[in-house]
Amino acid sequence: MIVLAADHGGFHLKEEVKKHLEAKGIEILDVGTFTADSVDYPDMAVKGCEKILSGECERGIFFCGTGVGISIAANKVKGIRACCCSDHFSAKYTRLHNDANVLCLGGRVVGAGIACELADLFIETEFEGGRHARRVDKIMAIEK
Fold first, then answer.
1. What pLDDT score does 53 carry?
2. In this structure, are strands 102-106 and 28-30 parallel, antiparallel, or unpaired?
3. pLDDT at 51 over 90
4. Taking residues 125-143, what's their average pLDDT?
5. How far apart are CA 85 and CA 18, in angstroms?
6. Catalytic annotation present for 64
7. DSSP string of the chain?
8. Phi/psi at 86 (nearest 5 deg)?
9. Confidence of residue 41 (pLDDT cuts 50, 70, 90)
10. How crowded is residue 23: how many other Cβ atoms within 10 Å of its Cβ?
11. Which of 49, 64, 84, 104 is catalytic?
12. What does the angle CA 77 – CA 125 – CA 28 come to, to the nearest 5 degrees?
């Protein structure tokens, strides 16, 4: 299951990606926001991260105006490796090499078509492991 979380700046893009993923039969848990009314992206990041850390969801896709703020907030949560992407190469390789568990997208940065393609890449790409596992372990050790 994929958790979706957004602030008001990412709300509309979240809704587009949600429709796309549901049409593909991907199970979604949407933790909000559910309107374009102002909410704080750190609060939404924590809601989404909790679903990943509990094991209820495998990965997340989070949205704010740029994708940057919500990625910074998500990365403060122990066990989360969030990336802000706006291109195909980064969305693919953050899974292959970094084992990222959260993709962050900017509602004011990428359009719905690209966002849906990035979400697909992020969901479909598996971690390559090998030499990259050592590096991810080092990243996670920084939290300690």
1. 98
2. unpaired
3. yes
4. 94
5. 17
6. yes
7. -EEEEE-TTTHHHHHHHHHHHHHTT--EEE----SSS---HHHHHHHHHHHHHTTS-SEEEEEESSSHHHHHHHHTSTT--EEE--SHHHHHHHHHTT--SEEEEETTTS-HHHHHHHHHHHHHPPP--THHHHHHHHHHHHT-
8. -135, 10
9. very high
10. 9
11. 64
12. 60
| Of 12, 20, 97, 132, catalytic | 97
Q: Which two tokens stand for residue 74?
A: 């998500």
The question of whether 8 is a catalytic residue gets the answer no
What is the token pair recorded at 86? 């706006």
In a 13 Å sphere around the CA of 52, the CA atoms on its Cβ side amount to: 26
Q: What is the mean pLDDT of residues 65-89?
A: 98
**CB count, 10 Å around CB of 26?**
14
Model pLDDT, residue 114: 98
